[in-house]
Design goal:
heterodimer, A: alpha/beta, abc type-2 transporter like fold, seven-stranded mixed β-sheet, 7 strands, B: 2 domains, 32% helix, globular
Amino acid sequence: MRTVAIVFWREITVRLKNWRFWIGTLSFPLLIFLVVALPALVARFSQERLLQVLVVGDLPLPTEMGAFRFIPVSQTAIDSLKGLLQADDDLVLLILPPSPVESEICTLYTAFSLSSEKMENLKAILTEAFRAYRQEALKVTSDAILKVLTPPQLQVYKISAEGATRYSAGLATAVGIFIGIALFILLMGAGYQILASVLEEKSNRLVEYMLLAAEPGHILQGKILSGLALSVFQVVVWGATLAFGGGVTVSSTLAEDTHQSQRLMEAIHGQVYTVPWGWVVVFLISGLLLYTFLYAAAGATSDSVTELSPLSQALQWPLLLSVIVLPTLATSGEGPVLTVLSYFPLTSPIYMPVRLIASEVSGWEAVVSLGILVLTLAGAYRFAAKIYQHGLLLYGQKLSWKAIWQILRD
Amino acid sequence: MVLEVQQLSRSFRTAEGVVRALEDATFIVPDGVIAGLLGPNGSGKTTLMRLVMRILPMEKGEILFDGRPIRDLDRRNIGYMPEERGLYPKATIYEQLRYLLRLKGFSAEVVQREIQTWGEKLGILSYIHRPAKTLSKGMQQKAQLMLALAGNPRFLLLDEPFSGLDPINAQGVEQLLRSLRGPGRLILLSTHRLEQVDDLCDYIVLIHRGRILLTGHTAKLKRQYWDQRYFIETEVPVASLRWPEGASWQAISSHSAEVVLSRALSSQTFLQGILSQTAVRVFYEKLPTVKEIFLRAVQSITV
């Protein structure tokens, strides 16, 4: 434990002194802002097609507002209208609660995925309508003021030939991209730091002294724990920046006036609270650990940063591909590819949280996916420790796949 | 402190197949000596050193210190200096000494004291707050030597301790090693500079293709490998002499030669034969150097 702590503190202090760590920490919120705000800004300044919203319910809504045209329809026509949705990509069905005073749950049926920005605008219009209706109905007494201010909840169901399933692609995509990019940047930081540190010690033959002084497993643990600790620190910094600064920036960028900005902020915070952050954090940390173990092993198989082994190069692909195909997969809804990716350990840290947010995934699915991930973690640690111990002493050469296989068989 | 290596074997599985790096290596190094581990490249020296240092798991055989398994020896009692630069280039000497010595199990107080003591002895105290990459190779080598010597270990392993050192610094290290030689401590060094081993090592271990070829006290081995070779310097040119039968000679200069006597010819008879022709200025036994022993031992198994 003492050895682990000594390695841990050494790695922490070295990394905190490195300007690359601070560049990585501070540039991520900016990157996320660009990813989130740029498409919205582009959409705001481009001509949008009007979305026809068929409305079932008594809440008075404007005939046309922003990108929406609200068309009142009869309660009895709901089933036939659902069929109509699949034929028209500019048509959605909005079912308001029977009593807008008693309930604020609205249901939206759509055959396609709405952009996050459109969802927020629709919510903002509904919030205003609910507020006005309740203020009128309740006459705004002190008891009723809380009810008046409660924003509506919009439950989205995706219509397909098999029926309607609950779905929220926009938020899921955003969180998935957040995890993907976060994992990638954390790995570029923590993983690369561990990799570089292992390589440095190997290329300078410090490893021989270190292996004499301490157990290789303890050295590896110290390095990994320090990488994890700094990653958690970065995630906290990013989360705080995005929660407090990012929301304000995004809403003020997208909103046309102060009132709309306030509404957008409420909407953003409303969405943030619906994310199962517990699962997100657990999957993020597990994913980070898994990739870090593999990166440490990769560092031990190589002999210089410029000659990284096939293993370390191969490790970047699952993450890169996950981020690239995520928007397409998330918006196309539940399917076999998404399901498989949410169980595959190298991609489940991204795709299981995506599914948890996007659709009604059972808790057991998340538990099973996490179980597979944890088992893989244990295996990856053994693998990394073995490669680390053997690869460290092989100077002037990088390990081939065949040699890696031989080490694992020994 | 006695090092006993018994039937030590180690093989490695590579893509090309199983490579036997060490095969049934057995030898003893007595207490208080400076022992030289000699062998050509790929002979198994590094594997042997790593097994002794416990950084490679043993496959077969045993390594004992004072009759007890090597795993019982406290890590702090083993000092090691690798062949190449073994320092973090960007960290200061002080930072890395503190880190690596703490890692080895020394307390912060001991580390501080050892850095002060050895820094003064090796003359690098004024450089310890500078990054390693800004120091000369000689200075870096001294910092590594500090790492090996800190804590006054009973067993010192030095891999090519003189490489990168200029003659003055090399002499300084040699003197330091001589001063450390004594009962209760064993120094094992590997070097390709065999002339240094001749001067410094009082015990040698010769290894070739994973097998121990030769071990023993340097003086005894020199006597064992001596081929009745003498050096002689005479008043008259050596080319004008009548050399006794059984003496084969080679001129070193006009008045000096190296001569090898056959078993039938004693040195007394030979000298009498020469003295009857000329005065002899110098005459002495020319013992083989460690380099010559090394080459002859390797040749004897390759022929």
